[in-house]
Write a structure and sequence with these properties.
The protein has 262 residues and is mainly alpha-helical. It has a domain of 157 residues: Orthogonal Bundle (Helix Hairpins), CATH 1.10.287. 83% of the residues lie in helices and 0% in strands. The termini are far apart.
Length: 262
């Protein structure tokens, strides 16, 4: 199971590497940095809001403290020491609250300054990353375009490989058809495909046709020998009349002789 898991993770990692676009990754990282910067800015705004509320509370308490102090003075002027003492007691309690709020105010002010400085530094980093991101994206796009052009010229790109394979298949099919046509021509020349009816001649008829052709040649040869044996006149007559000279009658009873003439 561990081996299968390792194989699966390796194949998944390889598939992710092929699917990953560095430009998209850079844009995603930049977006995350902007989101972080926005969170820091919201934190600065929240701290500033809390600090402002404390300042308002401090102003109210300080106003109440000043009012109680004025009331104590008026009470002493009127001879009401008890009222002056009560006013001063309340003022002392307010002063304790003012002291606590001032401590919180200073703490919040320090946090606000730290967050503001962090936001400024993060803003500078985000701006620098954006510039670098755009530079890398432009360089990657240019390199990708150059690679595609080079692959197209060299014929090693995926598209050109497909075209090359299609051309190779077409050439192979063409060569196969040409070979088949040549084979059919040879069969036709040899007479193997003359009989289109599908009824092939038997071997006896083929032998009779061969002997008949040989007999005609022998007869023509005998005729030519006879013409040559008949002499020049026979040859001339054969050439002029297209046939052999007529044989002379050699019967002694039909021949005339000087001794028997009257």
């Amino acid at each position: 199971m561990k081996r299968m898991g390792m194989i699966f993770r390796a194949k998944a990692n390889k598939a992710l590497d092929r699917a990953e676009d560095p430009r998209e990754t850079l844009d995603y990282s930049y977006q995350k940095q902007l989101e972080l910067l926005q969170k820091v800015r919201r934190g600065v705004a929240d701290v500033a809001t809390s600090r402002k509320r404390l300042e308002l509370q401090l102003n109210q308490l300080q106003g109440q403290s000043a009012k109680l102090e004025d009331q104590g003075r008026k009470a002493l002027a009127l001879g009401r020491e008890d009222l002056a003492r009560e006013a001063l007691s309340r003022r002392a309690a307010l002063q304790q609250q003012v002291s606590d709020l001032e401590v919180q105010h200073q703490t919040l002010q320090g946090e606000e300054e730290k967050l503001t400085l962090a936001a400024q530094r993060l803003q500078a980093k985000v701006d620098a990353f954006r510039t670098k991101k755009e530079t890398i994206k432009a360089t990657y796009t240019a390199a990708q375009a150059q690679t595609r052009i080079a692959e197209s010229f060299s014929g090693i790109s995926e598209e050109m490989s497909d075209v090359g394979l299609a051309i190779q298949r077409a050439e192979d099919k063409t060569a196969q058809l040409q070979a088949r046509a040549g084979a059919i021509d040879e069969l036709l020349a040899s007479g193997a495909l003359d009989d289109q009816s599908g009824l092939a001649k038997d071997d006896i008829q083929a032998e009779l046709d061969r002997l008949s052709g040989g007999t005609d040649v022998e007869l023509e040869l005998q005729r030519m020998k006879a013409e040559l044996a008949g002499g020049p006149s026979a040859q001339q007559q054969a050439l002029e009349g297209g046939g052999a000279a007529a044989p002379q009658d050699t019967n002694p009873q039909q021949q005339s002789h000087p001794r028997f003439e009257k």
